Request: fold
Amino acid sequence: MVINTNVTALVAQRNLGNSSDKLSNSLSRLATGNKIIQPQDDAAGLAMYSRLDARISRIGATRVALANTLSFLQTADGYLSKVQGALDRMSELASLAIDPTKSTTDKELYDAEFTDLADFINTISSKTFNGVGLFGNGAASIKVAGDEDGTAAQQIEIKLPDVANADMANATLKGSLPSTGAVAAIENVKKGLDQVTEERAKIGGYMSRVNTSLDTLAVLKENMAAASSRIRDVDVAEESAVYSRYSILVQAGTAMLAQANILPQTALRLLT
Reply:
């Protein structure tokens, strides 16, 4: 029996320290909701969920870009729908100008409206979306990433609608209605209408492609978030049981350390 070195108390102290560390870690997990508090908890898991989180962020940014592209296409289609309406009216005006019962003054009035609509169509080619031109010259295009990696193979190329080609230019000829050129104007307007409907059909295809990419990325983001959650997020029910276990061990260890510190006092009995 010794007094200077209380081995029993040292063992109790070590066990109490281990239980206290485990209790502190469990409390941190419950407080943060994270399974990995420090790198040593799961070094490989930390690296994996860090990569997953970075990928999730890229997916979110890509979806924003695709949503903006969809708005770009919707804006372009909105302008083209107005162009289509203007051309419909222009074809009607040209047909009215052929009426032999209309006077020259009447035809000049038709031509004035025809000219105003033509001016409206001609201004469409300069329209922009956030500073980016909506309409090109047949060769102009924009590209948007179709996946989070932005690889060239997955990029979506969108050829900008062309409202400045020959068919559209001929459709907006001015000053033709008061004369026998009204018949030619009808043909030109019909060609312009064909072009507008073709461009709107292309835009519809681009919208479908962009929406498909948006839906695909949404599903991918959900799966990546679920994978990251399985690695990082703590199971509260399981961790609560762990917390309760070490809480009891800390209390028991504290009590046993107190008892171990009392043991050397029994040596005093040998001196009495």
In short: The chain has a mean pLDDT of 84. Residues 49-231 form a domain with the f41 fragment of flagellin, N-terminal domain fold (CATH 1.20.1330.10). The radius of gyration is 39 Å.
